[in-house]
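Example record

The entry below shows one chain as it appears in the dataset: sequence first, then C-alpha cells.
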Amino acid sequence: ARVRGSDRAPEITADWSLHNGSLRLDDPTLAAFERLEFAGSFTEQQLQLSSCHGELGSAPFVASGWVDLSKETPEVDVQLDGTDLLLYRREGVKVRSDAALKIRGPLDALRVEGEATLTDGRYTKPVDFILPLLRRGQPPTGNVEGISLFSLAPPLDTMKLDLKVKPGNGFRIKTNVANGMIRPDLRLTGTGEIPYLIGEIYFDQTILNMPAHRITLEQGVIRFGEENPFVPTLDLRAGFRRYGYDVTILVEGDVTDPIITMSSVPPLSPEELLLFTTTGQPPQENANAQEALG
C-alpha cells in the first residue's frame, strides 16, 4: 500500500492479488470457477483488475476490467474470454463452449452480453415419452412443465442476460431412443433468476430406434418464441419404410400438447397404421400375402 497527499486529504493506493482461489454458485448445474489468479490495484475510487485467469470446468479463461467505487452502487466493467468452458451440466446434459462475455453495470443491475459457440454439447438422458405418445395415438395434456434452465441466487438474480448461442460443433443427442445432432441458433435472455431461450434448434438427420422400427427424423425444428419461451413449439417430420409402405409422422404444436399425424403410401386405415407403427405388425393385406407365400 502507498499513501500520498496531505494528512487532510490522503490518497491511498494498493496492489492486491489472489492465488489459487475458487468461486462456487448455489446452482449445481453451473460449474465452479477454480484455480483463480487475480492481480490488480486499488484506490478509493476504483478497483482495477489488471490480470485474471482461471478454469471453468477444467478449461481456461482470462478476464480484465474494473470496478468503479466512486458511486453509491459500485459499477462493473469486465471482459471474460474462454475456451471450451463448461457452461452447464446436469444429469444426462453437458454444454461446453468458447465464450466472449462482457459484464457491465451497477452491482444490483448487472448485464451480461456476448456470445458462446458450442464446442461440445451432449444429451444422453434416457427418453421414454416418444413410444407412449405413439401408443396412445394422442399426446398427454397437463403432464409436462415448461422448460426451466437454472436460477441464480441474489445478488445475481437481477442480472440481465443477452447471450448469442452459436452452433459451432453442434449438440449431440445419443440416448436409448435417439442418435443424431442438433444445431442451436438461440439467444439466452431474461434474468439470473429466470433465464430463458429465444430462437430455434434445428435437427440434422436423426435416427429414432423404436421397438418396432428404425425411424428417420428427416427434418425438424424446435422454436422458442418470445410470446411463451418456456413452452417451445415442435415442427418435426419423421418416417420409415417397411413391407412396401412409406409411413410419415408429423409432430407439431406446443411441446406440452403436441399434435401427432401419421399417414402412409399406400394408405392404411388409422387403426392399421397405428398398430403397424407401434408394434411392427404388418397390415392385414400384407400379412395375408405373406401367409399365402408361406
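Notes for this example: Residues 129-144, 287-294 have pLDDT under 50 and may be disordered. The chain has three helices and 17 strands.
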